[in-house]
Amino acid sequence: MQNIKLKPEQRQRCEVWTRVMGYHRPTNSFNPGKKAEHQERLPFQERLCRSESAD
User: Fold this and answer.
1) Which residues contact 54 (CB under 8 A, 6 or more apart)?
2) Which of 20, 26, 35, 51 would be a feasible disulfide site paired with 30, CB 3.0-4.6 Å?
C-alpha cells in the first residue's frame, strides 16, 4: 500500500450524509440539536446467530 501525502490545499473536504426519517441529507445542514443527536449515535453492529438444529 502506497502512503500518499497531500498538502492541506490539495485536500478536498468530505461531505457526510446520513439517512434521516427515510431520506438522505448532509449532516452539515443539521441544526444544533440534530448535530448533537448524530454525535451520540452508535453504528449498527450485526451479530451472528446460531441457528437451532432441526430435528
Assistant:
1) none
2) 35
- Report the predicted TM-score, pTM, of the whole model to 2 decimal places: 0.48
Per-residue pLDDT of the chain (55 residues; tens, 9 = 90+): 788 898 989 999 899 898 877 889 898 889 999 899 888 988 888 888 877 665 5
Give the DSSP letter string of 1-55.
-------GGG--PPPPEEEETTEEEEGGG--HHHHHHHHH---------PPPPP-
55 CB neighbour count, 10 Å cutoff: 3
